[in-house]
Amino acid sequence: KIFVTGALGQIGSELVMKMRDVYGNNNVVATDIRRVEDHEVVQSGPFEILDVTDGKKMHELAQKHKADTIIHLAALLSATAEKNPMLAWNINMGGLVNALETARSLDCKFFTPSSIGAFGPSTPKDNTPQDTIQRPTTMYGVNKVSGELLCDYYFHKFGLDTRGVRFPGLISYVTPPGGGTTDYAVDIYYEALKSGKYTSYIAKGTYMDMMYMPDALNAIIKLMEADPSKLKHRNAFNITAMSFEPEQIAAEIRKHIKDFKMDYDVDPVRQAIAESWPNSIDSTAAVEEWGFKAEYDLAKMTEDMLIKLKEKGI
Ligand code: VAH
């Protein structure tokens, strides 16, 4: 059984549905800190309430459901983590240690995402290499680098089959992200349809890697199904689909909503986070070791986002 934490989050709410499609509803156990009764993840298969800082409960539930794979997604994102750094440490690192220990005791395959947030100001910013200096200046980044190293450790020390990717900003129309820095690239689509204008909290000219959620979901499944003997890296594969700055996504939206207007009210906290991250990262290792491929570029994503949001009645 596949055991997912953070199943009602931005990635989890779509990954659970996709994995239930692929592997069968009852083979994917969804968990999150709260139960939302009418949520399709709760309705379409096994669901358990789990606070990932409760290691004992996590072990019990994983054992009860005979987990053989753990997908650990529960975490606080970058902007929230900067507001509550110690809470972020407890959830992001406490939750990860519990998930790794549970996986070790039940000998599960293991996935947890890292992020472009695992890089810092001294990391080469353009075409950031797979192996390079990582001195992040955010609590989220410290959590992500520690997480990458911890997952590698569990592989080398205990032989645990840990795998992971460094996600760029993820854009989706199902569940909006909570507390991220890249969320402007999601909010802008909602606002373009609702009000025809958007005030960006990220400054003009600030490039960040991004990816449409369908590509992110496919990447997780492809990595988890990859031949382990081909994996020279294990965790923290750089993957990206595109890199853009606010003016570029606005221009793409204007191809569909011609009088869309954007102005700026830069949030110094999230701007500082964004500026500490790369402009664009290099996915070569992921392409070579497990055939990573993104299908959506900015044009294709924008077209699909606007159609899907309209269908949702935004
Ligand atoms: C965030 N969406 O903004 C997340 C992600 C690369 C960005 O880690 O914190």
From TrEMBL:
It comes from the Bacteria. Residues 2-239 form the NAD-dependent epimerase/dehydratase domain. CDD domains: TDH_SDR_e. Pfam families: Epimerase. PANTHER family: L-THREONINE 3-DEHYDROGENASE, L-THREONINE 3-DEHYDROGENASE, MITOCHONDRIAL. Belongs to the NAD(P)-dependent epimerase/dehydratase family. This is L-threonine 3-dehydrogenase. It comes from Crassaminicella indica.
